[in-house]
TrEMBL record:
Keyword Membrane in record: yes
Alphabetized UniProt keyword annotations: Membrane, Transmembrane, Transmembrane helix
PANTHER family assigned: STEROL DESATURASE
Membrane-spanning ranges: 22-46, 67-93, 108-129
GO molecular function list: iron ion binding; oxidoreductase activity
Name of the protein: Cholesterol 25-hydroxylase-like
Top-level taxon of origin: Eukaryota
Entry keyword Iron-sulfur: no
Domain annotation Fatty acid hydroxylase: ranges: 112-247
Length: 251
């Protein structure tokens, strides 16, 4: 607990900011753009540095500024017009309580892992359903599949229904598990990072799927193939659900 207590004391010192109704939406958008920026830079560098192209999953396709700007504008619009009213209602009905003590490190790591596994399962079922029911796909999910070759900013390029429903899954799991607020913050950061990495379009030497053994984690190659082929690899992170349901395709 001692190693996390200093971190938690630093966070608690910003209590007025954290308890503000504006914090969740600013935190979400800032973290999202911060995680996207390295990949945006890489997209532009790859055009000028051929040695970097070996890391591009689909090297024949690169996003242009004209493709990126609409994604940024849509994300800003969704955060301001849709996500903020929802987080404001949540702030009004469920005020945040900041405990004095930080969580113990094993408890924090376990809770973050369980939240990720739950989100992965919920996303898999939601995703599979929206591909198997034509009306759901055309009405809600087709927007996200506009780009066959993904890039970081396509992570949140989606319909209102998709953004809110997946945001609900991410928000409800820490509540159900009664996670510490610091655990919630770390889970949200990890979840945003992994989502951006999934859509980055790059298979880098330090990518998460290379750090997890036995092919348990699919990562960017796994999800990129879903956008390319449409009919496989529905789970966002791990590979076990696709293998169990027969929807797994080797990337």
């Amino acid at each position: 607990r001692l190693c996390l207590q200093a971190v938690w004391d630093f966070v608690k010192a910003k209590e007025a900011l954290i308890k503000s109704p504006f914090f969740p939406v600013v935190f979400s958008f800032t973290a999202y753009m911060a995680f996207c920026l390295p990949y945006i830079a890489l997209d532009f560098l790859c055009i000028r540095l051929p040695t970097l192209r070996k890391y591009k999953i689909q090297p024949q396709s690169y996003p242009t500024l004209g493709m990126m700007v609409p994604c940024i504008i849509q994300s800003m619009y969704h955060h301001a017009v849709l996500i903020f009213p929802v987080t404001f209602l949540h702030w009004y009905w469920r005020p945040m309580n900041l405990p004095v003590l930080a969580p113990e490190l094993p408890k924090l790591l376990l809770d973050v892992a369980v939240c990720l596994f739950l989100f992965d399962f919920e996303y898999f079922l939601w995703h599979l359903l929206h591909h198997k029911v034509p009306w759901l796909y055309k009405t809600f999910h087709k927007v996200h599949h506009k780009h066959v070759s993904t890039f970081a900013l396509t992570t949140q390029y989606s319909s209102v229904w998709e953004l809110l429903s997946l945001g609900f899954f991410a928000a409800i799991n820490p509540v159900l598990l009664r996670c510490h607020p610091l655990t919630e913050i770390i889970f949200f950061l990890v979840n945003i990072w992994l989502s951006v990495e999934d859509h980055s379009g790059y298979d880098l030497p330090w990518s998460t799927h290379r750090l997890v053994p036995f092919g348990l984690y699919g990562g960017a190659p796994h999800h990129d193939l879903h956008h390319l082929k449409f009919r496989s690899n529905y789970a966002p992170y791990f590979t076990h659900w696709d293998k169990l349901f027969g929807t797994f395709t080797e990337s």
